Amino acid sequence: MVVQNPNNWHWVDKNCIYWAKEYFEKKLPALDSTKQGSNIHVVKLSNFDGDCEVNQRKGKIISLYDLKMTVLYEGVDASSGEKYEGSITIPEVAFDTEVDDYQFEIVVYKETVKVGEQFRKEIRSDLIPQMKAVFQQFGKDLLAANAEDIQIPESEVSSVFTKQNLSSSSTVLKSAPKTSSAASANSTTSSNDKPKVTVPLSTLGAQKISTYNSTSLHLEPTFNCRSRDLYETFLDKGRVNVWTRGSLQVVKSTDMGSPKLLENDEFKLFGGNIDCIITALDSSDVNEKIVMKWRMNDWLEGYFSEITLNFKQSDEYNETKIQIIWDKVPVGQEDRCKKNFEEYYIKSIKLTFGFGAIL
């Protein structure tokens, strides 16, 4: 990458959010805990959001980042041999976070008192220290992999002042290992560049843009009911019409007379503001699941996000969590999607059927 910045004097920043996501997708699933027999291991990075950039001015390099992420894990109950799953959410991984300041929200799906206590204890004692080490190392690896992209070489710098800053920066960078880069996905701007322009979604269609930059969401609402009842509430046409106030419009179906929504059915909700296509259904008691394409009517024609609903029932606590993995959400639409889903799906279902308290 070519940087036009005499003596490295001007402010230059590089957006490293995609590099950061790839970094944690590689580092976190390598973590596991086997000390207490539960064989708990991180499966994947489920949700990743925030800001991450590397900046330089007058030869000084700094990193600024504030990230939130959720990972999914699996483990085995040492006494019964039964497999359990769950999630760990880290609400803040920031450039100035001290090692003891990280917060971890641990969820165990299909939880029992015994397994919940066992898993949380092992995760806190063994897995979380490993995650903290990854977070502390991240800042160093971020600079090592991306800093040289936003500076001209020291040999081309004539300013004594910036040369001194370059020397001190390079000493820090040499102490961190070089990591793989996703530079092609990142962007660099300088103080001389034109300001960025954000284009409203409503105008994108007129520009004939075929897709969006996208991100993902991870939600885990809890309902006081059986997973089977909740699963049916999303598919039974009568129930759907109740919690959506009669807004269900089936556009295409293999059986229009069916009392339930079926795989490959296409339908609209809330006055045509939401378009949905069910792409997969799993009604087994072990893992009830609904996968669907979902879009708002002001998005680009034909563009859909993808929602996976996994129903996790805890018999001991008489509750069901829905693990919602929501991919291909247009960047900038995250809050809108989340608020609409929480208000018109989660809250409406709880109020209509008495499936839980409203917080």
UniProtKB/TrEMBL annotation:
Compositionally biased tracts (Low complexity): 179-192
Pfam families xrefs: Aha1_N, AHSA1
An annotated GO BP: protein folding
Region (Disordered): 177-198
GO molecular function per UniProt: ATPase activator activity; protein-folding chaperone binding
GO cellular component: cytosol
Residue ranges constituting the Activator of Hsp90 ATPase AHSA1-like N-terminal domain according to the UniProt record: 13-149
The family this protein is said to belong to: Belongs to the AHA1 family.
Name of the protein this chain belongs to: Hsp90 co-chaperone AHA1
Organism (species): Hanseniaspora osmophila
Lineage: Eukaryota, Fungi, Dikarya, Ascomycota, Saccharomycotina
